[in-house]
Amino acid sequence: MAKSVLTPQAEDFPRWYQELIQKAELAENGPVRGTMTIRPWGYAIWEIIQRELDDRIRATGHKNAYFPLFIPMSFLEREADHVEGFSPELAVVTHGGGSELGEPVAVRPTSETVIGDAMSRWIQSHRDLPLLLNQWANVVRWELRPRLFLRTSEFLWQEGHTAHASWDEAQEETLRMHEVYADLMESVLAIRPVLGRKTDTERFAGAEATYTLEALMRDGKALQMGTSHNLGQNFARAFDIGYSTESGDRELCWMTSWGVSTRVVGALIMVHGDDSGLRLPPSLAPAQVVVLAVRETTADACTQLADSLRGLGVRVETDLDTHTGFGRRVTDWEIKGVPVRVEIGPRDLEDGVVTCVRRDSGTKERIGLDGASGAIAALLPDIQRSMLEDAASRQTEMTRDVTGIEEILASEASGFCRLTWADLGAEGERRLNADGWSVRCLAGADGEVPATPAAVESSVAYVARAY
RNA sequence: CGGGACGUGGCGCAGUUUGGUUAGCGCGCAGCGUUCGGGACGCUGAGGUCGCGGGUUCAAAUCCCGCCGUCCCGACCA
After folding, report:
1. What ipTM is given for this predicted complex?
2. Using the CB atom, is residue A37 less than 7 Å from strand B?
3. From CA A177, how far away is CA A260, in angstroms rounded?
4. How many domains does chain A have?
5. Mind listing the pLDDT tens digit for each residue in A371-391?
6. Where residue A4 falls among pLDDT bands split at 50, 70, 90?
7. CATH of the domain at A78
């Protein structure tokens, strides 16, 4: 067995994470503290996530647009909670064109305010509603303790912003996008997060309610994978986003916003990665299959198989670099997480087979060269399913019910601790926070996301240490 | 931003305590040869303003001051 190429997770999880990102060529630190250079392999993963999510956002009736990076400080200041929440992490530009600016401009930490300003002009009538927008952008939130993908001062994301004629519609939109996110996580990222609602202390600055998706990483810490906010009329009031009703009355709009960022790549790494490296679910692997020539003489067979796989719509790369040692190439592809590795050597060709290795399970089998592409392509959905089941059951195993806050504080265990919100309460939450725990979300006892005060009252709190 | 550790070729490190010729090692990289079915080996070679800026000294990777950066722990967040 090959010696491990990464620090084992059990030995030092943060170090494992860092080494994996470096060795899989996903990303590296930028020259300015807190910034991140996303390398081609990492960016290809993000692009697939982006495409999958963009398709879903369009399918639910939203249009993409782009708003400016620079925001007048005065905009941010119009919503009291919003500015209070974001001011500690704002990057502010004070100079431009060689001289000091009259009014400093903020680099967007999020775009509710600029978009709100635009919407106040674009919306006049109930006929303009609902207005369903989305933008793909970078945002800046100055980070004191950066970590690649998880917390960087600049990150990439998608932020949806919508305006509606009623609270009900806004609520429906908020939960619809929450569901869209859940589907993305499950069917693309092969992660099944807990769906819930943020407590008042964890709520987005300026929102009435925040809904979240929380998943457990392999080290037992939780990560927020996406959020969806019902903004009520807070921003509508601040930016005067109103419309005339059918009867001619003027009303304020009800707004939502929702976002998913490059942070999910961090989740992907920490949920699926193992001591041999990254494990990519086929649905977002830039290369779903790598066909590796053991010897130079088998290169043609590799190229042919790869072409045949491409014909079936499979994303394939070939590795014909026979000058590099075989074992070396194998471990490199394992670190990168390619779901299926097909090896073709002289022995295989003699026997009329190819050797096929699954990254998720390590299972190795020889399959007939005739019809190999079909058999290989057929593995992909199976790997996808199996990785989801793996991740979901690992999360379940790391989730336990507790009867009270003392039990949490006394434990060294990681993972989710679950108890009723009635047993915990805001005071209990404060005590947990003081000790490094946080209430990740409140999930409905009935499985529904708690949307009403009554549902919150009867909800179950998921408590964990978090990223 | 607080507490701790650390910055030496691309990566990982030794050397720093006790200043003293051309700053070493492993990996990686380039060339050649032998290898090749789970990180191969030999030979040859390239590559370093010792994080940056000051200071002390005949002499600084080494001592002093400041700054920057990285990692871990805390408060904040997608």
Report:
1. 0.82
2. no
3. 11
4. 3
5. 999 999 999 999 999 999 999
6. low
7. 3.30.930.10
From residue A333, how far is each of A123, A296, A314, A339, A390 by CA, in Å? 52, 18, 17, 9, 21
A155 φ, ψ to 5°? -145, 165
Taking only Cα atoms into account, the Rg of chain A, rounded to an integer number of angstroms, comes to: 25
Domain membership of residue A301 (yes or no) is yes
- Report if CB A31 to strand B is under 7 Å: no
**A1 within domain boundaries:** no
Strand B nucleotides within a 7 Å radius of protein CB atoms: 1-2, 35-40, 68-78
Strand B closer than 7 A to residue A367 Cβ: no
A362: which nucleotide lies closest, measuring CA to C1'?
B38
Check if residue A144 sits with its Cβ under 7 angstroms from strand B.
Answer: yes
- 10 Å Cβ neighbour count for A84? 13
Q: Is the CB of A346 under 7 A from strand B?
A: yes
Query: Per residue in A119-160, pLDDT tens?
Result: 999 999 999 999 999 999 999 988 877 888 998 888 999 999
